[in-house]
Design brief:
Radius of gyration: 28 Å
Low-confidence stretches: none
Largest sheet: 4 strands, antiparallel
Order of helices and strands: EEEEHHHHH
Number of strands: 4
Length: 239
């Protein structure tokens, strides 16, 4: 009977270096798809997938308990020349097996649109200007901003491109893609033509205010949290 070796059981396999192709073992799945851009350019996408991959963690974060799927996405043209640097993605979670490499690639490509949405909402739709200590009110405001963005998307076919003074080379009915910013610029005209079911605002008298003797509930005071720079190590108080 063989004796049991002392120490912890082996949790990791052979070394896998993203920058060294010689350390890659055979992929568990290979997917090849084609995609056509808006300008009619044909792209060949090759996705290599390795399942049940592990990454080293820390003492407090046991990453060997969280296997993931590793994806390598390479995009080439008709001449089999790489257009961009290959992209590496991981799909992690208990339901990672339900997400195909094609779906994972498509969902990550939507990140570009999501980042533009957040940037536009902050700069033009006042998403971060509303300040309130109530989480419910903040969530309602975010929903309202998203509804406004949806309205701009729905009105893109009705909008006319209003060029800036320095954009005289653009015609009002050109083939230029209608962005949310250009639709918002022409939205007052669209509203005036479509109309609104809301009633016109009416003036009212001054509010009576609070009733005499009415007590307001004080909000709970929370400690102020300050971000610590990465260069400064954590200072723990000793007893």
């Amino acid at each position: 009977m063989s004796k049991k070796k002392p120490g912890c059981k082996k949790k990791y396999g052979e070394r896998f270096d993203l920058g060294d192709a010689e350390t890659w073992h055979k992929p568990d799945e290979t997917t090849q798809i084609q995609q056509t851009t808006r300008k009619g350019r044909l792209l060949n996408i090759t996705i290599l997938a390795w399942h049940q991959m592990l990454i080293r963690g820390t003492k407090h974060q046991k990453m060997y308990r969280h296997p993931f799927t590793l994806l390598r996405i390479n995009v080439t043209d008709d001449t089999n020349q790489s257009l961009w640097k290959p992209m590496w993605l991981i799909v992690i979670g208990e339901q990672r097996g339900e997400i195909s490499p094609t779906v994972a690639n498509h969902c990550y490509r939507q990140r570009f649109d999501i980042e533009h949405l957040l940037r536009f909402s902050k700069q033009r739709l006042l998403m971060t200007e509303f300040q309130t200590p109530d989480v419910e009110h903040k969530e309602n405001w975010i929903r309202l901003v998203m509804l406004v963005y949806v309205q701009l998307w729905a009105a893109k076919d009705l909008a006319t491109h209003l060029s800036r003074p320095w954009e005289r080379y653009l015609k009002p009915q050109s083939d230029t893609i209608m962005t949310p910013s250009t639709v918002q610029r022409d939205f007052p005209r669209i509203i005036s033509e479509i109309g609104t079911p809301a009633r016109s605002p009416k003036t009212r008298r001054n509010s009576i205010g609070r009733v005499q003797g009415q007590a307001q509930t004080q909000r709970t005071k929370h400690p102020v949290l300050k971000k610590q720079s990465k260069s400064t190590p954590d200072k723990q108080k000793t007893a």
